[in-house]
Design goal:
L-fuculose-1-phosphate Aldolase; binds 1,3-dihydroxyacetonephosphate; 2 domains; 298 residues; binds zinc ion; single chain; 11 helices; alpha+beta; 9 strands
Amino acid sequence: MGFLDDASDFIDRGVSAAKGAVSNVACEQLGFMRDFRRLCREGAQAGYHERNGGNASYLLTDEDLRAARPFFYDYASSWVPLAAPVPAMAEAFVLLTASGCYLKNVADQPAENCAIVQIDPAGAAWRAVWGLRAGGRPTSEIDAHIACHGVRRAADGGARVLYHAHPASVAALTALVEPDSRAVTNLLWRCLTESVVAFPGGVACLPWMVPGSAALAEATAGALASFDACLWQVHGVFAAGDSCDGAFGLVQAIDKAAAVALQVRAVAGDGAPVFRLADGDLRAIAAAYDLPLNEAFL
Ligand code: 13P
Ligand code: ZN
């Protein structure tokens, strides 16, 4: 990717401290940016991001911030209030995809299709300090992203990555079953052996809500306090991970299981499948791999 990679060479040689020289180009080559760009590309290639569907965010570490700060704009945007304050996110810096952007374009044009936002000391507002070079604003799901980062940060030091995708399988399956977290988890666990390995805690499932709404953000943050992923009925999935690979892998595992569940249902019709994993099978996998199985969902 010629030009950007050339800029990376400047960084590697320590030349890029001169922000003006490679203004907002070298930032794209930092490690966390590369991972984020790859996540967006892989999600688009997997078919999870029709048009502007889906979005993602990454909570910067102190080290990331030290590396990225030299590229921040001299003048940040104005403060924009969040739907609800998230005190646990006070002073945090978060990389987000831009609202309306096509995730397939993030890898090649991150400065146009992403933003790094700073959260204010009260955790009540954000302002853009990098990116959005073509204008616009961060994803319409920013309230869900910031609220979920806050919940995870307060609980366990944070899930670095939150990833919202639109797998067709998840939209289809949640049109056929009630949005009951235990029932949906059982469906996914019992039709595919590796499901319980990928999400031993189960998944949450929320009833349909308006995309980008404060209600959806609040409910998703509540779900992500206990689960690594939350299905949005007839919409998609919102997943947390310690890394881009972790969040993407979780979505892939849910997508695969949902697709298998649909195929079995399509073929079996009203007839029951001849085999489903039983409680004992799920417990045996959990014991073999030392997994924190959510026993309450069996
Ligand atoms: P954005 O383009 O605002 O990120 O919205 C996409 C989406 O999937 C909303 O749920
Ligand atoms: Zn969506």
